[in-house]
Specification:
globular, 14 strands
Amino acid sequence: MKILVVGGAGYIGSHMCKSLEMAGHEVVVLDNLTTGHHQLVKYGLLVVGDLADVNVLENLFIEHSFDGVMHFAANSLVGESVANPAKYYRNNVSNTLNLLDVMVRHDVKKIIFSSSAATFGEPEYVPIDELHPQKPINPYGSSKLMIERILQDYAGAYELNSVSLRYFNACGADPEGEIGECHDPETHLIPLILQAVSGRRKSITVFGRDYATEDGTCIRDYIHINDLCSAHVLALEALVSGEKSGALAYNLGNGQGFSVQQVIDVVKKVVAEDGCELVVEDGERRAGDPAVLVADAALAKKELNWEPQYGDLETIVRHAWAWEKQRANL
């Protein structure tokens, strides 16, 4: 198949391109490189362009006969979305409409959408399954939920088939060390800790040690980037084969949580092998941080025949550390 990967120069998108090519598919990447990185596009043809430019999209769909689309392009900083919601609704929602409308015009009726656990808001119970109420508490989560609802309407009106995949905490790096996380600013826990180890930042701060968890620190569900990508490939193949249709949605996570302190302990164990140490500081709780966020991914496992291969936290950290050592020239 020939697949358009929108946002394929980002963290998840770049790993997705490798997974697609390894599965035998042809890849075209569309990315405006505002947060993506040219050097991460090691698989597929890169077209530099923006979803806001309908002419770029039209020309792409005229030049290429796509079998499907994977959509990862979005602004994703929660705090920024609160301070500048217009940016998030314009880029995440309005620009996605441009993409969907061009797909409909060119009769490309299969899309995998990068959604988020942020669509759920504060958890009413854990683990969080697909029946959990969706009540986002910030514009970022709201923008993702809006697109999910748009996809439902487009399925009914235009027979545009979609799968929305709601990620919990994507983490890790390509096991072969070709690609990894390059966020600026970095907001993910594991790379932040590893940057503190490598010397690219002074320390790591633990925000709150008085949560209702075993060690008092927040618990999150960490899913390896390659496991995330394998779910996307399976979802795409299910749409293309006709096995799945309509507007579907699945939660993606390990189904087990690790606390901030557990992550720190595993990092210390891994980096000690290289003679490295970690400076940890304590800070106050951050507003809006739930004590526990864990996914129930049983539906994806059942309906997509998906099974995470890298559920072990130490393996996730080792892959991320190998990438960080490259970036820090250790």
